[in-house]
Specification:
Helix 7 runs antiparallel to helix 8 and helix 11 runs antiparallel to helix 13. The chain contains 14 helices and 6 strands. With about 475 residues, the chain is mainly α. The longest helix is centred in the N-terminal third of the chain and has 38 residues.
Length: about 475
């Protein structure tokens, strides 16, 4: 078989996979955000003994359970779909990703056991602190699960140290049961822990913060809408927690983790950098903005997007998702959340100025729509920017070109049939049906949460200790 990579995945299968992964990411983000909100609210109750925080913690624990239940079922569907549709892909990387997926089983088991214990023991424990610790453990299970899954996703973008791509056909004249010539192997068994190397951790925490920012922005938008309508003090108390948290995490995401991850892309995958930054030229050319951000100068030259062959280039739409969705909407999210944070944290100071009151009114009345909108599209932009462009290469790294040309991009070449299942037939009508199911699952979780929230609330009365 030839080492020349070729495209082999029909568009409908790739769209089905992309929609499924994004929908599952939305459900997982909702769980991570709501279980964290429950733990924070219960902690604030223990500090203040304000009944509002206790009821808020209980509400969000139930909503977290809803998103976890639907997300777990949907995650099984997505995983089965990946194994079914992309069997060659699993054949290639199975050995590489076994450790984090093995640990993921224990993380999932932690969630399954402890989350129901947390939800169904409200008002049944004399020690509130112990109940809060159970909630922290439930949240830990969710974040541990996300940590392992994101470690796998990170490895597909940046090859961990010690990971080797072996061409079985060249070495032995055989392949993996007729599916692919390539397998990914560790140089030694101990190297499997390199799935969690420093570069992977940057990617992981970038993804975890994105999940919390997105989910808390949606929660903040709901409370902001209610606060604009009735001006109840408990809504204001929630906004004083949610909005500044979103603002701070957005700043960390952009100025710290985003910058470091950009440096990793610069060193590990210059082709992906060219696509993200819109360097749509051939050969070396100075890009002042990227040069300033990467090197602190204005005259550094970069290899353009068209310097590499067409079969290995990421899709050119990655530029739009990166700059318009992730960067611009992320900046706007920081502006809206930052402005409202100043107003909510220091109302006594800023209320003295008429211009500040006018700006605050504008940000409030528009923010309940725009803050969730900016967060959602920034998250989508980040996910698409990270996930697009691995095909036809996964576990990407680059090497200097001895002939003076563009860096040599190395990874897993895609042979005949691509990374998908070579025997599957996936007609358009079936793809459309699967996409409908994929969209319906998050919608079902949202509707179930709505039904829970709109029922007559049951007030939890705390015992006095």
């Amino acid at each position: 078989m030839s080492d020349q990579p070729i495209l082999g995945a029909p568009t409908d299968i790739r769209v089905v996979t992309a929609v499924g992964v994004l929908a599952h990411v939305a459900l997982a983000s909702a769980f991570l955000g709501t279980i964290l909100m429950a733990a924070v609210a219960e902690y604030l109750y223990m500090r203040s003994h304000n009944q509002f925080w206790l009821n808020t913690a209980r509400i969000f624990s139930v909503i977290a359970a809803i998103f976890f239940g639907v997300g777990a079922a949907f995650g099984t569907l997505v995983e089965f779909g990946l194994v079914t549709l992309w069997s060659n892909f699993i054949s290639v990387i199975g050995e590489a990703i076994v450790l984090p997926f093995y640990l993921e089983l224990f993380a999932f088991l932690t969630e399954v056991i402890i989350l129901p214990l947390y939800v169904f023991t409200w008002g049944k424990m004399k020690n509130q602190a112990l109940h809060w610790v159970i909630g922290i453990a439930a949240a830990f299970g969710g974040y541990w699960s996300a940590y392992n899954i994101l470690a796998v996703m990170a490895s597909l973008s940046m090859a961990p140290p010690g990971l080797e791509v072996v061409n079985l056909y060249q070495a032995t004249g055989q392949n993996v049961v007729g599916l692919t010539d390539y397998v990914v192997k560790w140089a030694s068994p101990a190297d499997a822990w390199n799935m969690f190397w420093w570069g992977a951790n940057v990617f992981i925490f970038h993804g975890i913060l994105a999940a919390v920012i997105f989910s808390w922005s949606v929660i903040g938008g709901i409370y902001l809408y209610l606060y604009v309508r009735d001006r109840k003090p408990e809504r204001f108390a929630m906004l004083r927690v949610i909005v500044p948290t979103v603002a701070v995490l957005t700043a960390i995401q952009g100025f710290v983790l985003g910058h470091v991850q950009g440096e990793l892309v610069l060193s590990e995958d210059p082709l992906k950098l060219a696509a993200l930054e819109g360097m749509f030229w051939s050969g070396l050319r100075v890009d002042p903005l990227t040069s300033f951000l990467a090197y602190g100068t204005l005259n550094h030259a970069f290899w353009g997007y068209y310097s590499w062959p067409a079969y290995m280039r990421p899709p050119d739409f990655v530029f739009v998702f990166y700059w318009v969705f992730m960067v611009i909407f992320g900046i706007l999210l920081g502006i809206w959340s930052g402005a409202l944070s100043l107003w909510y944290l220091f109302p006594g100071y800023f209320s003295r100025f008429g211009w500040a009151r006018s700006l605050a009114s504008f940000f409030e009345r528009s923010g309940w729509v725009l803050i969730p909108f900016f967060a959602a599209f920034a998250s989508i932009g980040g996910a698409v920017s990270a996930e697009s462009g691995r095909y036809p290469f996964i576990l990407v790294s680059s090497q200097p070109n001895p002939n003076g040309g563009p860096p040599i991009i190395t990874g897993v070449p895609v042979g005949l049939g691509g990374l998908m299942n070579p025997t599957i037939y996936f007609p358009v009508w079936l793809a459309a049906l699967v996409i409908i199911v994929e969209i319906a699952m998050p919608a079902l979780a949202v509707y179930m949460s709505y039904l829970y929230l709109t029922r007559k609330p049951k007030v939890v009365v705390a015992e006095q200790y």
